[in-house]
Amino acid sequence: MRLTRPMLALVGAAAALALTGCGSGDDQAAVPETATGSLEHLAAEVKCKPDMQTDADEIRQALCKTGKEKYVLATFATDRGQREWINTAKDYGGYYLVGRKWVAVGHEDVMTSLQGDLGGDIEIGTDHSGHSDGHSASHKG
Predict the structure, then answer these.
(1) Quick check: pTM over 0.85?
(2) Residues 58-69: pLDDT tens digits?
(3) Residue 57 and residue 118: Cα distance in Å, rounded?
(4) What per-residue confidence (pLDDT) applies to 4?
């Protein structure tokens, strides 16, 4: 599977916003069975009109919005392709909601909300923010 640097950067940036933590054990009871299906089907489940960014045999990727928050929704042809993509993207940090052959990447609160609709497991990327430059405080969504 070939991933371009712009695609990884987009995914990494979105992922950095999404996978920094997961809920307590109490939240697990509220998680529905993990959704399956095409990118369009998953998008419809969360009332997203997908803005397609990549439409290839191995990966289909779109931008979605929830209120003011944007996130990435991607589907994969194979489980292996999905895991390789996630493992690479997690180097950029972020939050990932992971289902079978699909992943959503965005802010932690958005992924937690989507998990209530799509099920799946939240994974957290690597935190490389070993410095405090005030970026988080000054970030405007």
Answers:
(1) no
(2) 999 999 998 889
(3) 23
(4) 57
